[in-house]
Design goal:
heterodimer, A: 5-stranded parallel beta sheet, 3-stranded antiparallel beta sheet, 9 helices, B: alpha+beta, 16 helices, 11 strands, 39% helix, globular
């Protein structure tokens, strides 16, 4: 008993007191800023592994970006990644950062269905489906509920059955072999329900775009309620995105 | 006979082409020696035939025997071939893959069960949804199906148990749900940064392991000798990844025996280690860190100092928690003699990595085929003998301590960044290169072949999980089904690494 108390005492305080204001350690690559100034645009575009960069004007699509930082290493004056981890949105177009943009990525309140605010603002139970996910977003989603990030304090939890869930969190580019299980799981969740795409593999296919082993038809059938960019997502990005989605708005 | 070293590049034409019977005889004879094991055996379409390449590692000499043969393409091959598996079970998954991909039939393979239902499989009528599971007819037995989607946040795979009451008689595991066609994407995506990104996404829990295997094979093809600072970064990343994942696994194992304190403490101890990766390269799982022929995030003296401070804080808390966990009767009661893999089983099915090492086998690439900075380590693998959950918990504790001691030693002497690196040249034409890396799970093997223009013609990935999933299926036999979660967690095998 004494040993247990000692262990507890030695841990100190591990939780992040305010996850909306936390500072990620080190060189976290969050929302990028693209500065004005002439560079070899084609060279910049060619650097990107997932074709996230497009030209005139230069844009970075956070739904495709792996946040590898190759572009910022090669063109440090042109592209800078800030530590702003609040990059989730419910509108796909808002994930595209244009040259000169330096405003936070936000949700479009008009696109948030009423029942989300009415039913889920105090409690949200989620079912996670990995559909070809590489276990990196899965690890980070697990980390959301650990003692550091402690997402459970907001009433947001992952549950073991779709019957208990209010929504689904999809990771991975959706492999052909997971297309049917994903559909069955979604159908088993009672209405009203939400869909969250976690990570760029789910949002755009990521590095797997164009693979014949994928079947992404599920995504064209339903409205997506939240896109959480990252490769993998950072727990702070996920928690802040979900909190913003379900919070009561006046 | 062609004998090469780890990461060595050789002309494809120098690999001896044997008649199939001779090929079978040669490779199965090699495996009669205990110090030889098969690291990769695969086929690919080549000049209208199915070319087979078999790589057998000699763990005593640190060499790899490479030989090849070919099958006529599938339709001409009606009666079927003799299998390697009949002589040595460790070829079992490899031949299932050859059968599934190319429709090659074997006359004496014990069970040509589909491996992963790839999109380009030979028989498209076989789908993952209509797969007939193994059945035992009896009024006393019942089946339990679990997955593909599991209760927690983990990757998909299907487990079909046949139980007698609470006792598991048989477990069949079906994979393939995670198949993304990654080997073909290596050929289609031509930029090096794309291929590095693919390697990072083979399985996101072994980013350093798989990416190191990719860069080593690529640099091998390009005739590039990585400088000490590159090798230093890769070695540190591999050992840090081991510390991070093992710590997370100890947390998960505590969860599965309902030990909340262990779950929380090991869980929070993993956080500073993965946060350190973020401090170093901007990603908690070390994505973007390892690249062929360069390093965007050089390891500085300041980073070394931070790492030392991290472990100075980590170790006392880790030791204290371990002491409690490994003396607590409630956890020991669940760990000890649960999910046993015998040494005989482990040897016969060709297990690698932690699972081999918990069954008394000293199978560790860091010792037998050292790469990067490992030749200077004088590495002695941690070996346990009981093959149960307890052994798998112990090996994690001991390997974490060992890795920390390696890292502490390494950061006393940090090589400075080479600012005048020779750029990577084009890969050699018509060549073959193999890379073995000891990831935290075990032996990772990447093989690449280039064509007459120096383009990648074939890329083959083998995750350690390919061998070890069968060990899990054997380990749970005669255990209570309620012990399956702790058994599964203690193996912590990869679904995406298996399905590719």
């Amino acid at each position: 008993m004494i040993d247990n108390v000692k262990i507890l005492f030695h841990q100190g305080k591990q939780f992040i007191p305010d996850v909306t204001k936390a500072t990620p350690p080190g060189i976290f690559r969050g929302r990028p800023i693209i500065h004005a100034g002439k560079i070899n645009e084609q060279a910049l575009i060619d650097l990107c592994p997932t074709d996230a960069i497009s030209s005139s004007p230069i844009k970075i699509d956070l739904g495709k970006c792996t946040f590898c930082g190759e572009c910022a290493v090669a063109f440090p004056d042109k592209i800078k990644f800030t530590t702003d981890y609040k990059i989730a949105s419910n509108e796909r177009e808002r994930l595209v950062i244009k040259e000169g943009d330096d405003v936070p990525v936000t949700l479009n309140p008009d696109l948030i269905r009423k029942e989300i605010t009415n039913y889920f603002s105090g409690s949200l139970k989620l079912r996670q489906v990995s559909a070809g996910g590489d276990n990196s977003c899965e690890l980070e989603l697990n980390a959301c509920s650990n003692v550091n990030f402690d997402m459970g304090r907001f009433g947001i939890d992952f549950v073991a059955s779709p019957r208990h869930a209010d929504g689904i969190v999809i990771t991975g580019p959706i492999s052909e072999n997971m297309a049917e299980p994903l559909q069955i799981c979604y159908d088993a969740i009672p209405d009203p329900k939400i869909i969250i795409l976690a990570g760029i593999d789910a949002i755009s296919g990521g590095i797997f775009i164009g693979s014949p082993a994928l079947n992404r038809s599920f995504l064209s059938k339903y409205k997506i309620d939240l896109y959480v960019p990252g490769n993998p997502i950072h727990p702070l990005t996920f928690i802040n995105g979900v909190l913003d989605l379900i919070r009561k708005r006046n | 006979m062609t004998t090469i070293k780890n990461n060595q590049c050789i002309p494809l034409a120098s690999i001896p082409v044997l008649e199939y019977e001779q090929f079978l005889d040669h490779n199965t004879t090699l495996l009669r020696e205990n110090h030889n094991h098969c690291v990769n055996y695969y086929g690919f379409p080549y000049q209208g035939k199915i070319k087979l390449i078999c790589c057998i590692a000699n763990d005593k000499e640190g060499t790899i025997y490479v030989s090849s043969s070919s099958f006529p393409s599938s339709d001409e091959d009606k009666p079927g071939q003799r299998s390697f598996t009949k002589y040595n079970l460790s070829f079992e998954t490899f031949e299932r893959e050859i059968h599934e991909n190319f429709g090659i039939n074997y006359v004496d393979h014990p069970w040509l069960k589909p491996l992963r239902f790839p999109h380009d499989r030979a028989d498209k009528n076989n789908t993952i949804t209509n797969y007939p599971f193994f059945k035992i007819e009896s009024e006393e037995l019942h089946e339990v199906g679990v997955g593909p989607i599991h209760a927690g946040i983990i990757e998909p795979g299907h487990f079909r148990f046949i139980c007698n009451g609470e006792q598991i008689l048989h477990l069949e595991i079906q994979h393939g749900f995670q198949h993304r066609g990654i080997e073909n994407l290596f050929l289609e995506k031509k930029k090096i940064v794309q291929r590095s990104t693919l390697a990072e996404n083979i399985t996101g829990d072994t980013v350093a392991g798989h990416t190191t295997a990719f860069v080593n094979v690529w640099e091998g093809l390009c005739g590039y000798k990585a400088e000490e600072d590159l090798q230093f970064s890769r070695t540190i990343a591999l050992e840090l990844e081991r510390v991070a994942v093992h710590t997370g696994d100890l947390s998960g194992m505590c969860t599965d025996v309902a030990y909340q304190l262990g779950n929380s403490v090991f869980g929070r101890l993993r956080t500073p280690v993965i946060n350190y990766f973020q401090t170093w390269c901007g990603n908690r799982l070390s994505k973007s860190l390892i690249r062929p022929g360069k390093n965007n995030f050089p390891f500085t003296n300041d980073l070394g100092e931070k790492l030392k401070n991290l472990f100075d804080k980590f170790e006392p808390d880790f030791d204290e928690m371990c002491e409690e966990l490994f003396t607590l009767p409630t956890t020991l009661g669940r760990f000890e003699k649960t999910g046993i893999v015998t040494n005989e089983q482990a040897v016969s099915i060709g297990t690698v990595g932690m699972i081999a090492k918990t069954c008394g086998m000293e199978r560790d690439i860091r010792k037998t085929h050292p790469h990067d900075l490992y030749p200077s380590f004088d590495h002695n693998p941690v070996v346990k003998r009981h093959g149960d959950v307890y052994s798998r918990a112990q090996i994690r504790r001991d390997e974490i301590k060992q890795s920390i001691s390696y890292i502490r030693k390494m950061i006393q002497n940090i090589p400075s960044e080479n600012k005048n690196r020779t750029p990577l040249s084009q890969p050699e034409v018509n060549s073959f290169c193999i890379s073995l890396v000891e990831g935290w799970r075990g032996e990772i093997c990447h093989c690449a072949i280039t064509d007459e223009k120096g383009e990648l013609m074939h890329y083959k990935i083998k995750d350690p999980s390919l061998h070890n999933w069968l060990a899990l299926a054997l380990a749970v036999r005669n255990n209570e089904i309620s012990d399956f979660p702790i058994c599964n967690k203690s193996f912590d095998l990869s679904y995406s690494g298996h399905d590719l």
